[in-house]
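Name: Cell surface hydrolase, membrane-bound (Putative)
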Amino acid sequence: MKKKLTLALPLVGAAATALLASEHLFNFAFKRVNYVPAETASDRTVIIGHGYKGNGETMANFAQMYHNLGFNVLLPDDRGHGESAGKYISFGWLDRLDYLQWIQQVIDRSDRPVKILLFGVSMGGATMEMLSGESLPPQVKDIIADCGYSSVEAELVYLLKRQYHLPKYPIEPLVSTISKRRLGYYLNDVTATGQLKKNTRPILFIHGEKDVYVPVGMAYENYAATHAPKQLWIVKNASHAESFWINPQRYQQRVVHFLNTYFDPQQPSA
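Structure predicted for Cell surface hydrolase, membrane-bound (Putative):
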């Protein structure tokens, strides 16, 4: 029991600290955003969301894949990550508001009509799912979410049980109450599934079959919540955020298939 309590304390502290974010502490001025233009002028731009404790640079392999596919690539650092402002992490919910600003900047700074793809992995995938329920400009065409969770609350409760063998109570209510007092919402007030119900953009869900960090069941929950055109790809033998690394060529083929269906629909040959 002593060992369990010792392990639990860092988790409770980390979770509580992460959710003690106040919008007053974030000045909305990101210090670094990587933008990589396509080799030739392109109207296609992908905005890539990174995972927990990562940054835009950790998404370099995905950036390379999309660059090879003729996309301009935008790689922001989320709040409290990399060189962006903010001491705290909101696990996608507040970040979605920042991505709305990045989308608008891409549109405003383009000298031609632009088509935007939203892509994210892990926390970045959940961020894009949460973003999907907002009022997106028509330039946003599609979304690809790789191993995103269904809600912050569900993810916290799952990790408490799996990694620390701890029950939901009293830790989750405590963290949720802190969130309500500091941010204005309880954890169960904000979910990816709730946002996906409002989504109107075609979306591809990708998830590793053997993911033990964000369980594959969450992919099915997200898929079921979506009423827009959707595809689900469960990658055999892949653990968390491993779907690309299992077979990069197959991953790219699956992405291209989705893009050919919805982003750049291919006309059937006569």
